[in-house]
């Protein structure tokens, strides 16, 4: 019987896992390396399948309260001509979940607050440096404290996962995709910028593209773009002003994206990485989820949603099956789906269907899993 789970990583995957485990009747300790006031990260789109997974772990309502809807995808020429106008709707009849925009920090905060409120023990500034498993338990190894004992350890520790290499020292690291995604926040966009409330709007130019969405309540503009480069970001990375100078070289002064970039108060970037295939997802008492198992580049538009799906499916498996069967069943349920999504986004798999196929995914929490 699984009584206590340890979760390494307190981001979206980690706290989603905590919520699923608590709902399954399993006590949880979440170990997070970062401080509790961390606001790193950018923003993301939660597609219908991600919202469905949030509903499965009973946290949809607070996430909806902290987000706003994305009703259309709109692509325009620089002169304003509408080239594409596509609604973002839920393909499953009667579910009516659509898509929503939320910042990474707000989503992580909602999930953390809910998992704490429901009984999870959450420790910050507690990086997991390794793990040791015995026949009857597993110990998470910490830098400045005694090991923490549990029945299972879940690695939700991201692209640079420690638990991934504990499971398999020869595990591949995510591949660099040859590009980086740049995110910006413009609280007061120029007055000549056509507003795009609840609408993901992109502009294409001869040298670059930029997509943005406006918060319908505050009017703040959130935007992103992508550039190809063979060079990885330095540490520390460029400042907001560095990025502003570089990006403005790709636009004419009177282009709408140039105005948005000029008024930005925060610009940051991340290298795009993908983990197409991880040979081993688990051992007898350790398992990885989210980016630790299948890092996805932003072009999938599914990284956060897949992590939440992982958490809900793992919770059901641990609720209904003995541990040695539960982790294998979790991998069986998840591997093909996530690897296909990543392969399509990175050009390793071709398809004639649009992204809507991935939106159909549904998790029925009350349905029991049988061996």
Automatic annotation (TrEMBL):
Residues 5-320 form the FAD-binding domain. Keywords: Monooxygenase, Oxidoreductase. InterPro entries: FAD-bd, FAD-dep_Monooxygenase_BioMet, FAD/NAD-bd_sf. GO terms for molecular function: FAD binding; monooxygenase activity. Pfam families: FAD_binding_3. This is 2-polyprenyl-6-methoxyphenol hydroxylase-like FAD-dependent oxidoreductase. It comes from Amycolatopsis cihanbeyliensis. The lineage of its organism: Bacteria, Bacillati, Actinomycetota, Actinomycetes, Pseudonocardiales.
């Amino acid at each position: 019987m699984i009584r206590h789970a340890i979760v390494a990583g307190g981001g979206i995957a980690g706290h989603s896992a905590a919520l699923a485990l608590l709902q399954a009747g399993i006590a949880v300790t979440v170990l997070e390396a970062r401080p509790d006031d961390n606001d790193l990260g950018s923003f993301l789109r939660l597609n219908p399948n991600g919202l469905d997974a949030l509903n499965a772990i009973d946290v949809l309502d607070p996430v909806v309260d902290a987000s706003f809807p994305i009703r259309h995808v709109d692509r325009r020429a620089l002169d304003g001509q509408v080239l594409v106008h596509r609604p973002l709707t839920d393909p499953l009849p009667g579910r009516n979940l659509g898509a929503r925009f939320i910042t990474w920090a707000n989503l992580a905060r909602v999930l953390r607050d809910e998992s704490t409120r429901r009984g999870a023990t959450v420790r910050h500034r507690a990086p997991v440096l390794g793990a040791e498993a015995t026949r009857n338990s597993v110990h998470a190894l910490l830098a400045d404290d005694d090991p923490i004992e549990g029945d299972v350890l879940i690695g939700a520790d991201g692209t640079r996962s420690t638990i991934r290499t504990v499971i398999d020292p020869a595990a591949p690291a995510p591949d660099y995709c040859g590009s980086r995604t740049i995110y910006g926040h413009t609280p007061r966009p120029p007055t000549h910028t056509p507003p795009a409330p609840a609408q993901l709007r992109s502009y294409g130019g001869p040298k670059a593209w930029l997509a943005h969405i406006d918060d319908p309540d505050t009017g703040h503009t959130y935007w992103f773009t992508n550039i190809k480069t063979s060079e990885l970001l330095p540490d520390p990375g460029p400042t907001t002003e560095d990025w502003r100078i570089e990006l403005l070289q790709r636009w004419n002064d009177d282009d709408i994206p140039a105005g948005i970039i000029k008024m930005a108060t925060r610009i940051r970037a991340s290298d795009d990485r993908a983990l197409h295939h991880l040979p081993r997802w688990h051992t007898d008492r350790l398992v990885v989820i989210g980016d630790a198992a299948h890092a996805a580049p932003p072009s999938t538009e599914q990284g956060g949603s897949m992590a939440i799906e992982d958490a809900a499916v793992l919770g059901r498996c641990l609720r209904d099956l003995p541990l040695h069967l539960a982790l294998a069943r979790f991998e069986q349920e998840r591997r093909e789906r996530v690897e296909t999504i990543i392969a399509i986004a990175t050009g390793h798999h071709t398809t004639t269907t649009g992204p809507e196929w991935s939106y159909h995914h549904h998790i029925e929490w009350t349905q029991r899993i049988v061996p």
